[in-house]
Amino acid sequence: MTTKQGNLNSQLEMEYSPFKGFKVFTTLSYNFKIANQNRFLPEALNSNMTEVYSYNDRLNTLYNRNMLSYTTDFGGKHILSGYVFNEAEVSKFQADVMQLTGTPNDQFTSGLGYATSLALGGTLQGLYEKRTLGYAGNITYNYDSKYIVEFSYRLDGTSTTGSANPWSQLPSVGARWNFKNEGFFDSWEFLDFGMIRGSWGKNIVPSGSIYDVYGKYTSDPQTYNNQPSVTLDMTSIPNIELLPQTTTMLNLALEFGFKNGLSFTYENYYKQSDQILRTKSIANINAFGNVNTNETSLVNMGHEFIITYRPRKKGDFSYSFNLNGAFNRDYAAALPDNVRQLLVADNSVYRQSILYRLGINSLSNVLLHYRGVYESDDQVPVNPLTGLRYRVGGSFAEERFFKAGDPIWTDLNGDYILDENDLVIVGNSQPVFTGGFNAFFQYKNWSLNSQFFMTFKRDVLNNALADRLRNYSSPTGTGALVPITDLDVWTTENTKSYYPNVYDFRRYGYIDPFRYDQTLFQEDGSYFKFTTATLAYNFDRDFIRKALGITSARLYISANNIFTISNYSGPDPELVSALGRDSSAGYPNRRSYTLGINVQF
């Protein structure tokens, strides 16, 4: 296998100042990237079928920016500055691949033949050509470094924006008060700096592609008169009213620091993301299957802080600490067609669907409410109208009626039948708090740097444990039957258990006691992790320069993933998906140690 990559960067900048305070600036840059990979697999490594694989892609980006700026001061305390600019960017990407299977042999000594029915190739999805154009202006007023006010305005257009509304207007305003510079704080000698700042503004993130706006033609797998045909892609209907995602941000912050090295930053923010691109199904009488719209909005609000302590070095010993954290909450603010809730169904074997509902967290789990295990048959509820026990929806097969050892799931609608009508909204896959801690110590030439990370109040679905228990549904299958002696599982001798009967495999297909979509496997994924620690020694520069003729040398040993404190029963609460699903696929997050030396000549 051969792999090659190339990257060409070029940039030209020019600046001219005809008089004091006034500048003309222009920049032009071009970036070109290529990558290719060629691979050959002999029969012995590919199920008795040789394979020739070739991939190549190319990306080029052209960017230009022209700006006029002016800065002046008057009265000794007033500074006024402003600028206007325009910028444009053109970016293109294309990737092609060829895969030929079944060549005559492992030796290429003549024309290359292959099994045409297995041949693959062509341009991959992801092909794009994007253009952006923007105009902007800014005015900033500064009075005596105490009061600073800033106004800016942008007008942006992108090639992925529909022709009905090609431009986005993006105003913003910000203000800062350096209260430490006020005269009445002169007596606060312990205060080094202090400020209050706030801002409000909008920006855009281009979303979708030009095909979402104008549609596209594709090669039809069906032929016309035995000839290949090209037809309009009927997957999504073109929408010329598409807009880029717009983010409105409002924040207020307080910053202050003391002369002893302690500083503190607190920020409160409100972030609203509008015009989020989402695909929705439409009636089949439209010929098209879907339409991409900008009808979704999300709100995120929270608090962030940073505490730093870095005292002045005294003698041979110095140290510093840094603690940061963020409390975040997100809410659904608008959904397509003005509905109040939207279920994103999971049609896989996991059936762990997500619900968007106005006013609550945007990524809510939809699960069955697990309440324990039936200790005996007498505990199973009986429908007084029919005399039948609580059962799983479907046929009236005897195996569908609950009995001792089965899970207790809440019958939400009271019909004595377990089905999708009994699902509840529960949990949040997004953490409420995330943060980190860093500690640095230095004594003479020795230094120790350590980092910690923490996540609190996050719901994780432990699919790894579910898989472990589900394997017992087929004792003769290929799934590994990992011992479960560490789990409180129901047996005739242990009826007061936490987990249902794992050995009743004959009824498993009817009851499905260890289904993924239940709160039995939803756990708190909070954790505190000692991430890394590095102990280093820096050799004396004068000594190594004279003795070895080198500029500097550093010897270090580091450890990663040192330990984790968590109540989560799964392998690692950090190795979960963005939606809080833990399948534990692949390799675990291992603990590792590194010994190295850095030498500079």
Describe this structure in words.
By secondary structure, the chain is mainly β. It has 4 helices and 32 strands. The protein has helices spanning 210-214, 463-470, 508-511, 541-547, and strands at residues 2-19, 22-41, 51-74, 78-101, 120-123, 128-143, 147-158, 167-177, 191-205, 217-224, 227-232, 236-237, 245-258, 262-281, 290-309, 317-334, 341-344, 353-357, 364-368, 370-373, 391-392, 407-409, 417-418, 423-428, 433-443, 446-456, 459-462, 522-524, 527-538, 552-565, 581-582, 592-600. The model has no long low-confidence stretch (mean pLDDT 90).
Report the mean per-residue pLDDT as an integer.
90
How many runs of DSSP E, i.e. beta strands? 32
How many individual helices?
4
| Classification by helices and strands | mainly beta
Q: Tell me the strand percentage band.
A: over 45%
Radius of gyration: 32 Å
The end-to-end distance, rounded to whole angstroms, is 35 Å
Helix content: under 10%
Which segments are poorly predicted (pLDDT under 50) over 5 or more consecutive residues?
none
Shape: globular
Major sheet description: 19 strands, mixed
Task: Itemize the secondary structure elements and their pairings.
Layout (H helix, E strand, L loop, with lengths): L1 E18 L2 E20 L9 E24 L3 E24 L18 E4 L4 E16 L3 E12 L8 E11 L13 E15 L4 H5 L2 E8 L2 E6 L3 E2 L7 E14 L3 E20 L8 E20 L7 E18 L6 E4 L8 E5 L6 E5 L1 E4 L17 E2 L14 E3 L7 E2 L4 E6 L4 E11 L2 E11 L2 E4 H8 L37 H4 L10 E3 L2 E12 L2 H7 L4 E14 L15 E2 L9 E9 L1
Parallel strand pairs: 12-15, 21-23, 27-31
Antiparallel strand pairs: 1-2, 2-3, 3-4, 4-5, 4-6, 6-7, 7-8, 8-9, 9-13, 10-11, 13-14, 14-15, 15-16, 16-25, 17-18, 18-19, 19-24, 20-22, 25-26, 26-29, 27-28, 29-30, 30-32
